[in-house]
Structures are given as structure tokens and as C-alpha cells.
User: Fold these one by one.
Assistant:
Number 1:
Amino acid sequence: PGNVLPASVAGLLLANAAFATNPLIMDQFTADPTARVFEGKVYVYPSHDIKAPPGYKGKPNWFVMEDYHVFSSENLTDWKDHGVILKQTEVAWADPGAYAMWAPDSVYKDGKYYFYFPAIAKAGGFRIGVAIADQPYGPFKPQATPIEGVKGIDPSVFIDKDGSAYLYYSLDKIFVAKLKPNMREIEGEPAVFDYLPKKGLQEGPFVFERNGIYYLTYPHVANKTERLEYATATSPMGPFKHAGVILDEAESGCWTVHHSILDYRGQWYLFYHDKDLSPSFDKNRAIRADKLFFNADGTIEKVVPTLR
Ligand code: FUB
């Protein structure tokens, strides 16, 4: 019919209209958003801050997290909550009273969705687990054991154009390990990016590629709280060279700035969090998204945070 726009034009208009209404999720606390494009939609895998439940015996005034939800959207404004995709009590190796389901990631490879998450093991210490699903919204089935040879938090997986997958994570420094094709084991020993700042770099690495440049982005405490910085390389294993600041320290004083970056319908976005729904307690956070722009030489312009 004459009054229907061709799909290509409609897609272009939608891409230009796509914007985020911050914070993205209003009915629960969310943090550490990893956003991915699956099946033409944006799926966000955040961690889920909650108030300490009765009987909680962990560190007071700290992060309390017992499960994960996933949210999807086509316009970054209307979000569908797909509900709980994984709980600490479903993970055989995790301490069910630790409430430490920290920042996760999810990637797609060869027909399966792989969800990577940290948790405190029954044997002690942070380990990283993998749960596998046929759909981006689960149900995710956790593996019986955490990834062998990996101790740390904040897993983030980058799959290169040749299909090779790399696991980045933190334990006071940023580590990288190549994943085997089964996506559940690493090849050899993890390597450490020990040439990045020695102090104040303890969590939240994220890697993406654009025009042959590999970007390693990470929170760094250069002053009082975390700000978002990045380094670039010609290989996903580095060496990475510091290249600038993407997001300044939050004016709100929120200490953490866990994030992810993605290209959705031709526009790049930074997903991050602040404490919009809990101004007096920065362990109850709220996820946001804002547009991100590149300069002609591949450097990143500082992101301007917006609310509503
Ligand atoms: O959400 C718990 C921890 O706070 C994350 O793992 C860190 O990246 C920081 O955001």
C-alpha cells in the first residue's frame, strides 16, 4: 500500500528516534548492565541490587544480589522484564547465602546463549560460572562447576570476527583468557594486563571492536570514585594503550560505574548505572543508557549523561 514506509526507511527512522529514557528500569534496582543485540532487539543483562533480606549475614551496607533478570527493548524506552533467569540457589557450586551474584554478561555462539556470572563459591572466593540457554531470555542452565583456572569478578566476553572468544575479568587487575570453542573452558593460563594503571583499577572490563580497533573500557579510580576510561589495541589480547576518559566521575557520588557499549541500528550507546532511585545509598543502583560518539580518528567523545 502507498502509505506504508519501505522496511529500510522505517528502520532508519526508528534508529534515529531510538533514545533512552533514564533510568531504564523503574520498578527494581538494577546495576552493571551488559547490553547485547540479539534477534534484532537490545537485551540488557544487569545485576540486581536488593535490600538485605531477613537473616542476611554478609557485609553490612554492601552489595546484596541473589538473582538475575533480563530486560529487552526495541526502542530503549519500553522495556520487557523477562523475569528471573538465574538464582544463587540454582548454582551447585555457589554459596547460597553469599548474595554475591555480581556483574554478568551474555553472548551468543553457534545456536546457544552463554551467560557468564560471578558468585562466591562454597569453597570460598569469587569464581565465574557459565549458564547456557537456547533463547536470550533463558531458561539458563548453570554448569555444575565454575570455569577452571579463573578466579575473579565481572566476566565479559568478546567474540572476534574469526569466531575466537575471549574472557575478560577482574581481581584487582584486569585479566584475559581465550575461551575454548565450547565456551565453558579457557585455553592455557589467563594473562594479566599489568601495564594498565596499577592502582584503582579493580573491576568491570568490557571489550568491543570497531573499524579494526579493539577498545578495552574499564572503571578507574583516578580521584575519589570510578570514572570510565579506555585503552586501544590492534588485537583483543593487547597490548592496550590508554586513550582517554569516556565518562567522568558521577556528580551523584555513585562509587561504581560498571558499563557496556554497543552499536544498535547504527547508533552507539553506553550502558552504565548511577543511583537515581536511591540517592542516599549507592549499592542500590539504576541502569541508564546514553548515546556515544566516535571522532574520525577512532577516539571516543566523552558521554553526556542524561536523565529522563
Ligand atoms: O555490582 C557489584 C560490583 O560493583 C560489580 O561487580 C562491580 O563492577 C561494581 O559495579
Number 2:
Amino acid sequence: MTARRVVVAGAIVADRRLLLAQRSYPPEVAGMWELPGGKAEPGESRESALRRELREELGVEVTVGAALKESVALRHDLVLVALRAHIEDGTPRAVEHRAVRWVDADELRRLHAEGSLVPADTAWVPELLADLAKR
Ligand code: DCP
């Protein structure tokens, strides 16, 4: 049996806005927006992997909270999960991405409607909209 690798992505909400990052590769998804993250290394916890990925990709230090309910099978051996995260230090900048932006609920709905979200990440839209409506 092949071990299942996990890709962890960060759902960062602050001031009723969600942080999205624009992919620069591969060509199929370049220009589309995603929750930033990446593959956990073998033996690395999801939380540590997310902290490392967001440090590398955005230059921020985060604390990691609860997972979103939906997970997405990217391939038979690769599953995508999202963890809520809170920025403790730093301002997100696009190190590996084309751009980063904060979107409100309407902007998230619009990006979703126009097909500008990375396909796998669309599974999280309802939960993200619920988070954006809180407080
Ligand atoms: N992915 C996704 N949605 C996200 C984050 C990632 O669908 N919010 C997918 C895209 C890739 C896989 O997960 O198929 C791995 O993502 P990355 O390429 O961003 O991760 P790594 O940089 O860790 O992988 P690699 O080193 O293989 O490039």
C-alpha cells in the first residue's frame, strides 16, 4: 500500500477577510487563487508542515487551529486538508506565488463564480463563507 501524503493549506481569516494566494505554476492552475500551503514531509505533523510552508511561502509566523471539515482527494495517494491559521508575526508577501490578497465574502463568491479558484479549493467555499460571516 502506498502511504497517503497530505497537502496542508492555511485558512487565514482576519477582519472578515480571507487570505488568498495566486499560483504561479503549473500552467493548468497558474493565475488561480488558493489557500497557501504545501506537502507535509513524511513524519511531519500537519500543524508543523503548515507553519513551515507559510513561513517559506508568505514570510509569516502562524499559530494553527482547527481543520475545515472538507478534505479533498487530489490523487489516490495525496489528500488536501485545510487548517485554520492565525498570523502572529509578519505581513504576507508573495515569495513563491504571483500575488497575495485579502478578500471579503463577496470577493470570494465572485472569484468562485468566475472559476478563478484552484478547483480543489472550491470544496471549502461554504465553510470559508461561514467563517467570514462570524463576529
Ligand atoms: N494544492 C491545491 N490547493 C491548495 C494547495 C495545494 O490543490 N490550496 C495542490 C496543488 C498540488 C499539490 O496540492 O497538486 C501540492 O501543492 P504545492 O505544489 O503547492 O506544494 P509543494 O510545493 O509542497 O509541492 P511540490 O514540492 O511538489 O511542488
Number 3:
Amino acid sequence: QQPDLVSVIFVRANGERIKASGKVGDSLLDVVVNNNVDLDGFGACEGTLTCSTCHLIFKTADYERLPDKPGDEELDMLDLAYDLTDTSRLGCQITLSKDLDGLEVHVPASINDARAA
Ligand code: FES
């Protein structure tokens, strides 16, 4: 594995695990797009914080070590996501760093494209 590659595992609601990887500085949305991870409707607004389809659920320990806390715009958008949890974030707002290598995130069972409202 190349030194600047960060591996990420997406776990679907049905338990299926999808291995992917990205570079330091990529967002989790970039990882989904660049690895062609097949998540229906994910990232509909292409990271412009207007859709909530990139909702991902983190393990508590991972959630707490994410470098950036969610901003107001992200929190507003998360409010519109289905299956919201205390450790939910929007994937397009999470930037990979080396110490996130091996990150495992859960994909909620359903997504809500807030733009359709
Ligand atoms: Fe739309 Fe993240 S991709 S809010």
C-alpha cells in the first residue's frame, strides 16, 4: 500500500462490506466516487451541502477523533437525513488523514435527498 493511501471500509445496512481507499486530503465523497462504490443516490449534490445523501454513521471512537467538528450548515443538513444518529456526519465534509487509515463507516439504510423536498 502506498504511504499516502488511506483505506476505508463502507458497511451497508445489510452488513455487506465494501473496501475502498483514498488519498490524504480526499473527502469520503471523493472516495465513493473514485472507487465507484455503488451506493444508490450517494453524493447527489456533489459536496455542496445541499442534499444529505452522503450521510454516514461513524463508530463513536472514530467520530470523536475526526479532525473537524460539524459546522452549522452540516448540522442543518444532517437534521434532514434519515436514520440520524449521535455519530452521524456528512461524508462530503470528512477529509481523510493518515490516522483515519482503516476507518469503517456505516451507510444508513435509506437516504433523503433534501433537494427533493
Ligand atoms: Fe450533498 Fe454531502 S454530497 S451534502
